[in-house]
Amino acid sequence: MCKHILNAQVAIRAPCCKKWFDCPQCHADNADHPLRKTEEMAFLCKKCKKAFRKDMNDYEDEDEYCPHCDNHYVVEAKTPAAALGVEGEDARMDSRLLKDDRVKTQAPSAFAQADLDAQLG
Hints:
alpha+beta; 2 helices; 4 strands
């Protein structure tokens, strides 16, 4: 599973080491050599699990689909986004993490009322 592209539809076979990777960044993370460029790429469709080759010099719009199952594998990549959240227990079970935004009014204490009366009167 690729951590760089969340919706990867195909895996690519690196021509340099003959191993399958989900994306070029996965190859860079796991291999100790750069990805070698080639004119013919080998792909593995993740939907039908069949391999196929494409000539990159003669790539056209109809080449964006798997020749076996017609899966559209050239899609806009969804990359993971950072999320900010509060870690804790389920708020439905333990509500101590929730802030109560209601305004609380306090009745003045007997001492504060006596001081107020002494100042006014």
